[in-house]
Amino acid sequence: MLDASDSYVTEDGRTIGGVVMEMKNITLRFGGVVAIKDISFDIRQGEIRAIIGPNGAGKSSMLNVISGFYNPQEGQVFYKGKLRPSMRPYQVARQGIARTFQNIALFEGMTVLDNIMTGRLHHSKANLFEQAFWKGRAEREEVANREVVEKIIDFLEIQTIRKTPVGRLPYGLKKRVELARALAAEPSILLLDEPMAGMNVEEKEDMSRFILDVNDEFGTTIALIEHDMGVVMDLSDRVVVMDYGKKIGDGTPDEVRNNQDVIDAYLGVAHD
Amino acid sequence: MPDQLIFGMEVFLNGLMAGVLYALVALGFVLIYKASGIFNYAQGVMALFSALTLVGIMEGQVPFGHLINAIFGTEIHHFGWHVPAVLAILLTMGVMVLLAVCVQKFVFRHLVGQEPIILFMATIGLAYFLEGVGDIMWGSEIKKLEVGLPQGINTLIDETTYGWFGYGFFIDNLDLVATAIAILLVSALVIFAQYTKQGRAMRAVADDHQAALSVGVSLNFIWIMVWSVAGFVALVAGIMWGAKSGVQFSLSLIALKALPVLMLGGFTSIPGAIIGGLIIGVGEKMFEFAVGPLVGGATENWFAYVLALIFLVFRPQGLFGEKIIERV
């Protein structure tokens, strides 16, 4: 078993650092429905961590707990070694946790560029007057922000649509713009809620490549939820498996694949 | 040049100026509607309330004077000082920001995610509440508002046009000032919305709440900000109308005139509010001028609404509104 501060090098040569986020005994209830039951797991610096499970297992709820959209009734969240108090989603975002949504939440009326620029919102400190009159800090920050954004646009190969209103884009590209906006915040942890849902094989391959490249190039820690088992097993370093709100497996893709509980949950088991 | 045509031109110009004031009120509606999806019925009352407060502060009136006197049997009405206009405007702005905070904290924070009709009902309640508070706080008599804006006929225009046509146009200085201020205000709002971080955040909130949260925007803060800006626009509108026709409670009825303006311009478009306001302003004056005498006059009372009705039938999203597309 690894220690919280240990780091190691993967087979493909990436360095995985110590624990950056730890969920401890999280329980989340909606009235009488228990969505998450006493789950603990951690996310390490620089890794791709997947959360999988059948429909209704509580995966999205878990992601919502991490990003502050839900506050769990029990349990603690440790972020960068400190206990995180209960927070509003925008506060979590400002701490450096960016996310995408299962059903895509983009600013449909804005252009691709404007959408991605919103990812930089809490990176600028200039006050209202500096911004209105385009002076000093405001100008420097805007230029720096634009540089970051342009780099991401290049990286995700969406140069040709940068001035297109997002509402006009096809589904696959919207997903990519959402990823770009999350990346623009230069997050310490990037949360992806089913980044490949509803995509065709080609789009899935593109998205997988981008996720791997982001992790490789920027060293971004990624936690993702995905249904496509093939994709998850190829992408991730470690996998948490959930079923009916409980954790039934945690480990490398190979370990998880051979875990009897996981096989039962996915293939069903005869009850006698 | 025929007299009718020259006179028509004068009517046209006066219509433009009236339209500017309609546009100012409509602008307040658009701002709140864009950022929070709330149709703020209280916008007109906010203009009234801000004008009442401004006069009250300037004249050193004791807030809730009548109430205090009635309870304690005292006879206080005025502090006995006069506050300069500029300072009074700043103080009133402070009151409007305070109002924005209260509205958000006590009303709309608790109604997040409710149906639009419920939010709309809440603003009707707010309108009556605010009208009542304005009455108790400052009294219901008609007040004169003198913030030092020039008033009366603009002699330069009068003389120039007299030189050209042999007939001097009557253009009120106050209308000219109102137009200049409206142009300034709209430019400032556009710069704010398009080029500042807070403006970007505001547009983000208007578009998608969840997405805005995920990029670190506090909805609460943005909503308070938007209500404050709407309060500021209401104050400007209140000053203009108040200076023109005195601060009186019928001011809140202007809000109703803003409705056809919004139907023309579209509920979501700032340029739409401006152009809609101008069209209504010019339209009703010209219509009264051209058709009024044939039908016995008073067309100004209904022209705007009929025009809005026609628009509702043929172009429900207005001139500049976002097209309503229903995907199946």
From TrEMBL, chain A:
It comes from Cognatishimia maritima. GO terms for molecular function: ATP binding; ATP hydrolysis activity. SMART domains: AAA. GO terms for cellular component: plasma membrane. This is Amino acid/amide ABC transporter ATP-binding protein 1, HAAT family. Residues 21-269 form the ABC transporter domain. Keywords: ATP-binding, Nucleotide-binding, Transport. The keyword Transport applies. Gene3D superfamilies: P-loop containing nucleotide triphosphate hydrolases. It comes from the Bacteria.
From TrEMBL, chain B:
GO terms for biological process: amino acid transport. Its main location: membrane. It is found in: Cell membrane. Keywords: Amino-acid transport, Cell membrane, Membrane, Transmembrane, Transmembrane helix, Transport. It is a multi-pass membrane protein. It comes from the Bacteria. GO terms for cellular component: plasma membrane. Pfam families: BPD_transp_2. The chain crosses the membrane at residues 12-32, 39-58, 78-99, 111-130, 176-196, 217-241, 261-282, 294-314. GO terms for molecular function: transmembrane transporter activity. Belongs to the binding-protein-dependent transport system permease family. LivHM subfamily. This is Amino acid/amide ABC transporter membrane protein 1, HAAT family. It comes from Cognatishimia maritima.
